[in-house]
Amino acid sequence: MLMLVVIIQSINIFHLPRRGLEVIGSRAMLSYQEPLYRPPSEGNNLILQATLGCSNNRCTFCTMYRSKRFQIRPLDALLEEVDHAAVLWPDARRIFVADGDALVMPMDHWRPLLERLAQRFPRLQRVSCYARPGNLLKKTLGELAELRTLKLSLLYYGIESGYDPLLAIIEKGEGCDRMCEGLLKAAEAGLKVSATVVLGLGGTGLWKAHIDGTIELIHRVPLHYLSTLQLMMDPSLESHFIGRFPGGFQFQDDNAILDEQHRLLAGIIQPPRPIIFRSNHASNALALAGNLPRDQQRLLGEIDAARGDGEGVRPFWMRGL
Predict the structure, then answer these.
(1) I need a labelling partner for 177 at 20 to 30 A (CA). Which of 18, 80, 81, 259 fits?
(2) β-pair partners for 94
């Protein structure tokens, strides 16, 4: 019998909405392979696990899927779970397709999956998923546009940094030019992109180059959403991660992280389109929310207040991945 799994991953907690839990009874239940991650903004939405793990799984700072062997789940099993999910939550409006880079699935998986979702969820408004740079580049413009017509409308995309030497150090797999190529293609296809940047990723030695390169990249592509994470690392990765830095690596403290956040937001002056900015992930020292560039001065003021007397800084015990 398929089992419902409730997974706690700090802010990445997944749960079925209360309405789903009330109708489970003897009906079929969803199955998830742990750990299951999702963006904070998908917390109240239905999650469908179409892939397991991450097809790259090499980023030196990330442990999210190290315990999994990457695979694309069989289409028949996936469509059956869509039917189960429709029984549990028939009025779902937003669906997140997991795991780490579900965009890697071929069109002969995506097309029937999205068609079945549209059939079984009549109130469906949006489907979203994580996207790696390499997998976004492999999809043609026509394929991305087709996915958009089938309601896959939002991609969560880890920029991490806009500084090419740092991207090579962390083994991201693509440089800035290639990331921009993919992001521009996504925009042309009508897909919205929610991008993330990792504060602290360059340590004390590369932080300015990291932030300045990131600002430059942000000015090259039309992002709808931008959020920051703060570097937090499983101790099992530290030795390899630090060893990749030719000049050594020292972690940034909170004051230095706030300097990075201030430099980033101060530098975003003329993005191609207005950006909804958030630093609400639990790893961040300071939670911020606003639109760029409209709210730039207010956000910078909030950072200045935090640098001055610690106003709004999240206690360490409240932080997590």
Answers:
(1) 259
(2) 126
Q: What is the DSSP letter of 272?
A: S
> Could you tell me the residue range of the domain that residue 251 belongs to?
158-321
pTM assigned to the model: 0.89
DSSP states along 24-73: -TTS-----PSP----GGGTTSEEEE-EES-SS---TT--TTTTS--EEP
Cα 211 from Cα 219, distance rounded (Å): 13
Q: Residue 264: how many CB atoms within 10 A of its CB? A: 23
206 and 170 within one domain: yes
62 class by beta-carbon count within 10 Å (0-12 exposed, 13-18 middle, 19+ buried): buried
* pLDDT tens string 115-144: 999 999 999 999 999 999 999 999 999 999
Alpha carbon 318 to its chain's center: 20
Name the band, by pLDDT with cuts 50, 70 and 90, for residue 234: confident
Give the total number of structural domains in the chain: 2
Query: Do residues 127 and 162 share a domain?
Result: no
Q: What mean pLDDT comes out for the span 101-107?
A: 94
Whether the CB-CB separation of 272 and 219 falls below 8 Å is answered with yes
Angstrom distances, CA of residue 36 to CA of 1, 52, 172, 228: 20, 9, 21, 20
For residue 308, tell me if it sits in a domain: yes
